[in-house]
Amino acid sequence: MIYFFFDHFLWLARAGVLDPALAPRFSFISAFGESVGYVFFVLLDLIAIRKALIEQRRLLSGKAEVELDTEEKMSSRIGADRVMRLMAIAANLADLIIALADIAPNPFCNHAVTLGISGLVSAWAGWYRNWPA
Question: Does pTM top 0.85 for this prediction?
Answer without folding.
Answer: no
